[in-house]
Amino acid sequence: MHATSSSVDRSARVDSSDRSLRWRVVDIVIAAVLGVATGLIFWFWNTIGYLWFETADAVTPGFGGIAVGIWLLGGVLGGLIIRKPGAALLVELIGAIVSALIGNIWGPTTIYSGIVQGLGAELVFAAFFYRRFGIVVAALAGIGAGVGAWIFEFFTGNIEKSAVFNLLYLGSIVVSGALLAGVLGWFLVRALAATGALSRFAVGREARREV
Amino acid sequence: MSSLGVPRPGYLHGLNPLTKIAVVIPAMAAVIVSREPVIPLALLALALVTVFTGTRLPARTVVLLLVALPVGVAIGAIGFGLWTDPARVDRAMVLLQVGDYRLYVGSLVAGLTASLRLAALLMLALVSGLTTSGPDFVRSVVQHLRVPYRIGYTALAAFRFIPRFRHDLDLIRQAHRVRGTGGRRGPLAAIGRLAGAIVPLLAGAIRHAERVALAMDARAFGAHPTRTERHSVPLRRRDAVFAVVFLTASGAIVVAIVVSR
Asked: I need a labelling partner for B157 at 20 to 30 A (CA). Which of A23, A24, B42, B170 fits?
């Protein structure tokens, strides 16, 4: 954490000379690796997060959405680090595939969830033309992923539940997406940049000033 | 994909990976929309028959499928059954009564349906999952679905990272233990351990990926619009035959069950 948030936001818009939306080989490899890493996070969260989900849902039906955010992290991380069209979708999708391959109770349907959650985050980054990557955009991307998940689950089963349940679920998933995926993901990327691992990426060059 | 005189391990291995994935999709859709146990059970049986006739499975997998699958379905049926909402099931027959709690036969049927649906989805996915190698899948996606080979092959490289991640995570945890952090038990401590491991894990993974990307760049990966393959994974007549047979069988099963009701 060497840079203040204002400096991150300012330099996010300069550097247009080397800002390219074309995928380099390193971008693809990093997307794949980030996807695998988030898949492992998902797999870990599949036990703890699902326990939390079920507990919260038992207290107030619909409130379980508050635990969903961690499962939306892939899209935010991919978008913030790689900054190319499709990155959010690709990372979240690979994460979901890994989570399904290692084995979880949802099986192959995890992959469909990954697609809609990644698309939700992707659309938010696209709405800012892949130019803004501040904490607000990150939170919005988390919300986008959450809304994507909500829409998918609405049509695959929640449609049979009450409107109150679905509204509560939407509210809690939005809060969880903004905080656990968006804000947490943004701080995670800053911490990663501070280690110097991201120095081949624009996000790493912004966070660390050359001396 | 062995030819050239080597005895083939079963007809499923000779099919294009995309065929095996595509033909089970209608059956999966039928399982997902079904609301009773018969359709998932029948399609589960069809998938089992396909896998057992189409490939020579190792003994361990056979035991797993014939013992663990029914046990898993039974446990799942009881687990789901206990949690189903009694207001939504048939309450004509009470199976068990403990104090105020009643377990209805209808609840168990609902639970059995849910767990059979999961088992059928798993088994249908295994038709391709057990008989397809990752590289062949990537080759056929690149050749037939026009997925850019740069993405296909890089994704393939990434899946080979998974064992490495496990190793890295172990190292990080050992390092934490050496320094005396962690050691507490319980879910909160586990979340704390993950939070402490995640940044070094990701940083290490990104550094490793950079080296891989550099190595790929050095070998001019992605310099040309197309690339040659070690071998091609064609769509052949047998793919069409298998698709027609499997689609007809799964369609006939579903139609027969729906009509006989």
From this structure: B170
